[in-house]
Amino acid sequence: MGCELGKLAKSGSSAKNQKTEEASAPPVQVDNRLPLTAKQKYNMLASWRGISRAMESTGVTMFLKLFESHSELLSLFEKFKGLKTKEEQANSQELIEHANNVMNTLDEGIKGLDNLDVLLEYLHQVGASHRKIPGFKAEYFWKIEKPFLEAVETTLGDRYTENVENIYKITIKFIIETLIKGYNNANSTT
User: pTM of the prediction?
Assistant: First the structure.
């Protein structure tokens, strides 16, 4: 009798452990338009929490790195094109606000990975809105890729592993490609 109760208790606890493991595992199905596996998507969302807690500093770092490597793009920004030094840029309220806007767009993009229809529409609208910027070209979207990855690495520190880097590369590429589609589609409808 004691053996049966022991077996029953043991099987109940292993079933409970199995349910806990299943609940914490990433979902198996991923929209085939998303270039991430279920595990990569899960890891992306988990690591993004670290970025979410430092959105402003990550965004400012991203723009400082962008202007450091592509100073010609500074002229596209009406509100802060006169900021020539890194210190002026880092302390500019206008640049900080723009960095926050861009990081919020990326935040929406990453948090929206569960609802791709809404996400794609949102990113298409953001891409299309860049048509209003005099002198802006679709290929300029790609210039934010490396500064974004460098800023994420700075923010995440030791948590920025090779695997996490790969996931962020796939994700930013997907976001940029979607922004460009929105930008290009706006051209064909105007």
Answer: 0.81
- Is there a contact between 101 and 56 (Cβ–Cβ < 8 Å)? no
Q: Is 143 left (phi over 0), alpha (psi -120 to 50) or beta?
A: alpha
Give helix 38-52 / helix 55-69 axis angle, nearest 10°: 100
What count of other Cβ atoms lies within 10 Å of the Cβ of residue 178?
22
Q: Is 110 within 8 Å of 45 (Cβ atoms)?
A: yes
Please state, as a whole number, how many other Cβ atoms lie within 10 Å of the Cβ of residue 34: 17
Query: Which residue do the tokens 């002229």 mark?
Result: 75
Mean pLDDT, range 112-124, rounded to an integer: 91
Residue ranges of alpha helices (H) inside the chain are 2-24, 38-52, 55-69, 86-90, 93-111, 116-129, 145-156, 162-189
CA distance 179 to 128: 8
